[in-house]
Amino acid sequence: MKRRLLVGLGVFVLLLIGYTTYTIVRPTVLRTEVEIDASPDQVWKVLADREHYPAWNPFIVSSTGDLTVGGTITNILRDTKGAETTFTPKLLAVQPGRELRWIGRIGFGGIFDGEHAFRIEALPDGRSKLIQEEIFRGAAVPFTAGMLRDTIEPQFRAMNQAIATRAAEAR
Q1: Which of 53, 98, 159, 163 is the most exposed place for a label (fewest CB within 10 A)?
Q2: Contact between 90 and 113 (Cβ < 8 Å)
Q3: How confident is the prediction for the chain on average, in pLDDT?
Q4: What's the alpha-carbon Rg for the chain, to the nearest Å?
Q5: Biggest alpha carbon distance in the chain?
């Protein structure tokens, strides 16, 4: 009886490890982009001016903390249903005019991790492309992929458009 229990537990652990590995190597990715009639520096100014997010940002309604690689910021997100979530991601990249990237985790690593990036690319004629992307990994992600696409991805698009409008107006 004890041996069957140990074998069963061993099989369960192996399946759990395999499943978790699968979710890490096959992430869920949300990616949106928009072309903006403003330079990369103008787009960065809007993105980095987090004090004014409550006035115009439909997705990240609050963001505080220093933009320093390795530091932690506090963000409040609003999904399409109006639900707000507070999280404290660690900053991975802060390159003015080019990239802002962080990683947020729910629980310890491997449960639900999201690496979020804003990348700004220069286009001809002083224009830019803003790419907003999040790579979700972890054991809980497959159970939430549909919800992420339905309630978060549209907010990426809404924020992209709001940044585009604000940056173009400042031009």
Answers
A1: 98
A2: no
A3: 90
A4: 19
A5: 74
d(CA 93, CA 60): 18
Which H or E run includes 90?
A: strand 90-95
What whole-number distance in Å separates Cα of residue 92 and Cα of residue 81? 29
SS3 74: strand
Residue 135: CA count within 13 A, CB half-sphere = 12
pTM of full prediction above 0.90: no
Residue 156, CA distances (Å) to 1, 42, 162 in order? 53, 19, 10
Using CA atoms, how far apart are residues 5 and 15, in angstroms rounded to an integer?
15
For residue range 24-42, list pLDDT tens digits in order: 567 899 999 999 999 999 9
pLDDT per position as a tens digit, 11-20: 667 766 666 6
What's the CA gap between 135 and 148, in Å, rounded? 11
Angle of CA points 14, 18, 20, to nearest 5°:
115
Give the span between the Cα atoms of 22 and 27, in whole angstroms. Answer: 8
Calpha distance 89→16 (Å, rounded): 26
